[in-house]
Specification:
By secondary structure, this protein is an alpha/beta fold. It is built from 8 helices and 8 strands.
């Protein structure tokens, strides 16, 4: 069995010290950096845009997973491709999902679907044949530090049963205990931000989470 994919989210990082955060992640065993792009409409928060992603890209060799938590991802694809995204996840609940996935495929960009915890899985399933991964949110979308909801476990198992080869990432409320539950349910990737970044030994924490 391949090792568990670990991505570290930086939306909750102290951006005054973001260079230090980036260096710590770069020297760690993390597989990638998870970049939550929030527009203040699809979710209540606003984070950062393509300029920040581009600046970070110049100083990192890690896989950049851009998670577009926005109402309409289609017009944003080009700028995040240019900024250095390795994969772009869009939400099943957003506008122009099919057209956006077509656009990603036509431009050779790896794509994924994300789905909110409260959204029926049926809304995302039609797109899974066209993407390489799915992010299943396990807590309320758009806020850090939210508690893991165990309802997510049955959703993980359902996607794993229906799509045995699908890469399933989980996001929201991830710590050592909840990551273990998610992996046992069928996930093979963990996205964790504030929890991992708060650990004194990042490498040890990553290995423990795997």
């Amino acid at each position: 069995m391949s090792k568990t994919l670990i991505e570290i989210g930086i939306a909750t990082a102290d951006f005054y010290c973001v260079a230090d955060v980036l260096r710590a992640i770069e020297s760690s065993g993390a597989d990638g950096i998870h970049l939550d792009i929030m527009d203040g409409n699809f979710v209540g928060q606003i984070t950062y845009g393509a300029k920040i992603v581009s600046d970070l890209r110049r100083h990192s060799s890690k896989r950049f997973d851009v998670h577009l938590m926005v109402e309409n991802p289609l017009p944003l694809i080009g700028q995040f491709k240019e900024a250095g995204a390795d994969i772009i996840h869009i939400h099943a609940e957003s506008k122009n999902v099919g057209a956006t996935l077509d656009h990603l495929r036509e431009h050779g960009i790896e794509s994924g679907i994300a789905v909110r915890l409260e959204t029926p899985l049926e809304k995302a399933l039609p797109y899974l044949d066209y993407v390489s991964s799915v992010i299943l949110m396990c807590a309320e979308t758009g806020y850090s530090g939210m508690e893991f909801n165990e309802v997510a476990l049955a959703r993980i198992a359902a996607v794993r049963a229906a799509y045995p080869g699908m890469r399933i990432l989980v996001d929201g409320g991830m710590n050592f205990d909840t990551a273990k539950l998610a992996l046992e349910a069928g996930a093979d990737g963990i996205i964790s931000g504030s929890f991992l970044l708060a650990q004194k030994d990042l490498n040890a924490a990553i290995e423990r989470m795997r």
